[in-house]
Each structure stands twice: as C-alpha cells, then as structure tokens.
Amino acid sequence: MCGIVAYTGCHEAYPILIKGLKRLEYRGYDSAGVALSQPEGIALYKCRGRVEDLDTLCSSKNCEAHTGIGHTRWATHGEPSTQNAHPHLSEDGKLALIHNGIVENYLVLKKELVSRGYHFQSDTDTEVLVHLIQDTLKNEQVSLPEAVKIALSSVVGTYALAILSADEPDQLILAKKGSPLLIGVGDNEYFIGSDGAPIVEYTKKVVYLEDGDVAVVSPNKKMVVMNINDNRKKRRYLQELEMNLDQLEKGGFEHYMLKEIFEQPKAIRDSMRGRLNVRKDVVSLGGIIEYETKMMNARRFIIVACGTSWHAGTVGEYLFESLVRIPVEVEYASECRYRNPLIYEDDVVIAISQSGETADTIAAVELAKQKGATVIGICNVVGSTLARATHAGSYTHAGPEIGVASTKAFTAQVTVLTLMALCLARRKGTISLSDYHQIINSLEDIPAKVEQVLKLNGQIAEFAKFFVNKTNAIYLGRGINYPVALEGALKLKEISYIHAEGYPSAEMKHGPIALIDEEMPVVVLATEQETYEKTVSNIQEVIARKGKIISIVTKGDKLVKEMSDYCIEIPETLELLTPLISCVPLQLLAYHVAVLRGCNVDKPRNLAKSVSVE
Ligand code: F6R
C-alpha cells in the first residue's frame, strides 16, 4: 500500500528510483512521483497513472541528482490525481516528503496549519506532515531531524516517511511507525525501500527500522537512528535480506500471477523442506518448538487474517479441528479488533499474512497480546512487522509474491497449517499412527500432483472462454473445500471484475438458488467423498434451473463429469489435503478469464498488494 524508494550516494539517483518504483508498483499504482536534489533546489516530477507514465514525463526533464525520493501511490485520502501524487513540497519548496500510511488526525492538524498561513495543494492527509515539519523548523529553531521528531510526536496514525531537504541536499531523513521501511547499506550509499524489492539489486545488507525510529543517512557518513519514544540514539543491527533478484522477474511468463501459480509445486516443497521428513517419520517446525506445549494445551485457537489468508485460515480450521481436536475460530482481523473479543491467556492466536504488513492483522495481533494470549505468526515476508510482532511462528517459503492476487502464498500457508496440525496432533496423541503415516506420505506427493494440475492449463484456458461475457458466477464447495470455493470466487472477482460468490454447496438452496438461470456459471468442487451424493443433488438443482456446471472432480469420476458442461479432473489425494490441489484450477480459470477480458491481471483496479492501512 504505497511504495517508497529513496537513494543517496555517488550514483545517479533517478534510474535507481524509477527501477525501484517499478518493483514496488504492486503496492499501489494510482500515481507516482520523484523529488531530486539539484543545485538549484528540489526538482519535483509527478503524475497520475503508472510509474511508466512518470518515466515518460521525466524523459524530457533534467533528472540529474545523486539524492532523491520516489513514491507510487494507492489512494486513501484524495482521488488518484497529479495533485494528490507524492512527493509533497513544503510551503517554501525546501522540503519534499513521501509517505506510506494514514495520518488519522490530519483534519485537526490541517485546520491549525491553514490558520497559520499554510496553503494546501492536495486533498491528502500526507501534506500536513510536510507543512508541520516546516512549521516546527521555523518555530523551534532546531535541526531538521529534531524538527521531524517533534512534528511526528503530534501525529496520530501510521507512517513510513522519506524527506529530502534543499538545505542538506545529500541527506535523507526517514521515519517509521506502523508501516515498513528498510535501509539498504551499500558502499558509502544508502538505498531505502518499503520492502527489499528496490534494494536487493544493490545490497543485501539492510536495517529494518522500528516503530518510532527517525533515521538520518548521508553518503560517507554513519547512519544515525533516534527514537521519538525515548529521544535516545538507537543501535539497529544489519541483517541479511532474504530475497533474490531473479525472484522478482517474470521468468518468461506473461504475468507474475501465472508465474506464481506455476511456482506452487516449489513453494509447497520449500515450505515443507526441513520440516517434513517422511523417512524419519517426523514433522517439526523449528519456529514454534518452544511453544508446542502451549499450543497443544490451548483452550482454543483463534485464527486471524484477511482475504486469501483468511481463506487459508478457514482451511486451517478444518485441519486443526479434525487432527488436533481443539476448537478453532477464524476471524476477519478487521472484525476481531473492534468487537472487544473474548480472548484468554490460554488461547493461541494464529495470525496469517503473506506480506506480514496487513494493518488489520497486525492490530489484531497487538490486541491478542494485550489480552495475554500466545500469538503465532504464519507469514511469507522475512523480517516483516508481523514476523516481529508475534511470539513465535513459521515462515511460508513461497518466495516474493508480486502479482496482487495471492496464489502461491495460499498454498504455502495451507501447507504450513497442515504441518502445524500434524505436528501438534502427533504430540497430543489425537491422531493414530497409521493416519499420521498416511497423511505425511500423501503430503509429500502433493507438489507432484499440483504439477499434474498445471498441465491442464491449456484446457482451462479454453473453458475460460465460456466466462468472458458473464457478469456473475457462483462457486460451491463443501467441508474443507468450502474455503476453496470462497477463494476461487475471490480470485475471479478481483482480477476479472466478474461478480462471484462462494457458498457451502448445501447453502445454495437457502437463497442463492434464486440467482440461477441459463446465464449463471456454477463452479462446483465435487471431490468430497462423504458428501458426494449430496453434491450431486445440488448439481441437479442447478441443471434443473438451466445453470451451467463447471466441475472440479477427482480423476476417474464419471457421474459428475457427465452432468457437467465443463469438467476439470484433478489427481486423487486425501480429503484433508485436497485444497492444496483443488485451488489451482480455480486460480488458472480466474487468470485466463481476466486475460481474455483484457484486464490488468497483476495490477487489478483499486487493489494493492500490501494493505497497510486499516
Ligand atoms: C487476494 C489478496 C488479498 C490478501 C489480503 C491479505 O488475492 O491478495 O485478499 O490476501 O489483503 O494480505 P496478507 O496475506 O498480506 O495479509
């Protein structure tokens, strides 16, 4: 949600900024801008639209500079426009500022600043920050870093900031609270990013700023970090960035989303590596070892997450309840926070997030910690806010996910949840040895089975043609495949803009059946054995109303196949593991429908990858 990049050093800043913005564009793509330190002062270029538009605009400008800041925006306050694009300039034009986050008390601050003669050029909350800092500089007669600290102490909300000053042209001031900010340390130069993507090409040595930090960097000088909470200088240690450049490229695929769908066998294998050892009969997750006893004895698991991660959590509910036999509640993180939930000290909260930066999820984690619960994280981005906020946790090893629609993160999350459930069930004794063996053996085979499903890509691309002109779709699933139906519907709606809803198959007759006519595609997950006959009846009910059936069945299925207009056969596996396979054709279907409709698959409208505002 908004991408920040900045550079100071001996190289040309503009190419580093623009490349960084292209890599960060998945965080927001409404407008983009750069501010560059030049001998005459700060040069500011910004426009509505993509980073590519900014690059075109800049091609006719003087962009020579060794220090600069850049921003790609996901609009919160104020429509997407050039005026609202960052950077924002102070009244005297001497400060330029970029921001990711939300200034919650901006109206109060704005009123005060307007009364003191400041003129606002935009409708954003961000602009108050730059005027506030200039005002503090003027009134308090302090250095710029001091002024930033003082100004930020009256700000309510979240921020990652980079500030450029015409008076200190090679210096950058950075600040963080609630939104991520990393400083890459090069050879007498510094690379700043909202995440590692704009940094990894140049250095893997990074400092993760912590909440309340205000940092000052200039080439050839040591970084100085202070914290507004206690006004002391802080020592922040260098860490190794766990990211490779080739993970950020499309690798021959037309879109990141397709590449990431095809990376799922690897993502699942990598998430199992070192954790599942079928030969030695062991499932073990190093990250939670110290908390295993606590987890086994939990009164209840509460899974908090948003979007696709919430769907993975709902699969987790089925896995944990059936294997570990402890009650599970799955909560939308955004709902959890504001309804004063009952969370006890012997509850274990599992927070799931690909980015590890989702503001709602982090807020739920903080609340759970306040209530004394143990909080375990499942997260993809190493060193992210969630990873640092939880007591313990397990990373998914899916690699960077760039496509805004989450795919491989989902299967990796379900893999880790399966391993966690197996590990706890074994220790707790709630699973028989033979079931345990059967599940871990089947789990090991999953990546190869996903590879078989990926071979159906061509067939699914054909089926997608049927959806192109549709306006609605229903997805049905039962048991552990119900969350997969929700996920399939989410994928379709977010990238193809076709309205789609997921339901438990049997719920259709309680309302949604009214929607069915000859125009309505109904995607049915029909792999569930226990309820197979019931699903067959549901399919009949759709056919009787002339709805069109697109089914996902187990290879060899005859009955449902014959009843379907389109049928996708997936390899057989244990019921509990089917989500890892059955989600894949639904991802491919959504992808091909979106491509056929000419949608921007990797950057769907109105969305951003990392939703770091509540
Ligand atoms: C859907 C999607 C979103 C995210 C949600 C949570 O394809 O990407 O629904 O799943 O915003 O994000 P994370 O997992 O980063 O917390």
Give an account of the 3D structure.
The protein has 614 residues and is α/β, with parallel strands linked by helices. The chain has three domains: 3-247, Aminohydrolase, N-terminal nucleophile (Ntn) domain (Glutamine Phosphoribosylpyrophosphate, subunit 1, domain 1, 4-Layer Sandwich), CATH 3.60.20; 251-451, Rossmann fold (3-Layer(aba) Sandwich); 455-605, Rossmann fold, CATH 3.40.50. Helices cover 35% and strands 23% of the residues. The chain contains 19 helices and 27 strands. An eight-stranded antiparallel β-sheet has the order 3-2-4-1-10-9-11-15, covered by helices on one side. The protein has a seven-stranded antiparallel β-sheet with strand order 5-6-7-8-12-13-14, with helices on one face. Strands 19-18-20-21-22 form a five-stranded parallel β-sheet, sandwiched between helices. Helix 18 links the parallel strand 26 (548-554) and strand 27. Helix 9 runs parallel beside helix 13 (408-428), helix 15 crosses helix 19 (579-596) and helix 16 (482-496) packs parallel to helix 19. The longest helix is centred in the C-terminal third of the chain and has 22 residues, at 433-454. The N and C termini lie close together (11 Å).
Overall pLDDT: 95
Q: Tell me the helix content.
A: 25-40%
CATH class of the largest domain, named Alpha Beta
Name the CATH superfamily classification of the largest domain: Aminohydrolase, N-terminal nucleophile (Ntn) domain
Low-pLDDT parts are none
Q: Beta fraction of the residues?
A: 15-25%
Proper CATH architecture of the largest domain: 4-Layer Sandwich
Task: Return the domain count.
Answer: 3
Across the major sheet, the strand order is 3-2-4-1-10-9-11-15
* CATH topology title of the largest domain: Glutamine Phosphoribosylpyrophosphate, subunit 1, domain 1
What can be said about the biggest beta sheet? Answer: 8 strands, antiparallel
Quickly count the helices: 19
Number of separate strands: 27
- Calculate Rg over CA atoms: 25 Å
Bound molecules: fructose -6-phosphate
